[in-house]
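User: Fold both of these, please.

Assistant: Here is the first one.
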Amino acid sequence: MARGAKETAAQKFERLQGELKEAKAALSKEKRKERNKQLMALGIYLEQVYKMSGMEVRNNMRRGLENYTLNPKVKALAMDGFKRVDNDSPPVPAVSKPSPQPKAVPMPKEQG
């Protein structure tokens, strides 16, 4: 330091600015890490929904992605994810609704 052991106001200001910059960078890093964890969890959830769905839901999810404005690289990666799951897990067959069963009509008791 220029003037003995005393820090000038300008030097203190520069030092504090540097510390603030470092603290902001550390906070940004932590926020990015948390966001990445959330993105991973959301991706896992959506993949599970896709895996457990029939063709109609899968087609709706694909159409939604195709129609949504995204960075082309991100969209291509997501479409590749759909293709991977399609290859690994075929769609769940559509379950047709069972036809309603007629209500059982009690037989009249025979009188003997």
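And the second sequence with its predicted structure:
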Amino acid sequence: MSDSEKVVILKLTSFNSTFLSDSEKVVILKLTSFNSTFLSDSEKVVIIGQRSIIFKKIKNMSWILYLLIVLWAFFGILALIFPKKAKDLSLKTTRSVPYLLWGIIALIIAFLLWQSAGLVSTPLLIQILAVLAGIKGLFLLVFPRSKTDAMLNYWTNVSDVFYRVFGIVLLILAYYIFQILI
């Protein structure tokens, strides 16, 4: 492989691919996955790095993680400073929508979290959160309203100190997820 061919491959993999169709992006991925035995180790790293950047642009799911960070940080601060208002807010938002819809929302969030797990340096945490969201969604879909009301009443009747500790845990999780985003 000549030096000009190496440069062409590197240039093909380092452009903004937002204006391409999915089939064109696949072609670019195939172009970068050629047999690279003639390249030096640093050139292989550049190509592999650029290929992963293109893959991330195709599968850009980081918005769900940023949304999770913002919501957890907001509720964590609210629970830390105003635990009674945080309890009221969680009770009002939960009771304002049918539990069936909350279950479907939780399953959608679980799917989106699972899809975005590859964007963080330790995907296991996001995968665990996705599984927990899926279990919550199934719980809200399957269990009767009386059981769900009983659990909701339990969590809204805990002490203010517990809610403040919960707020601190949410803030720590939001910060940690923000730090592990690639």
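The chain is about 80% helix and 0% strand.
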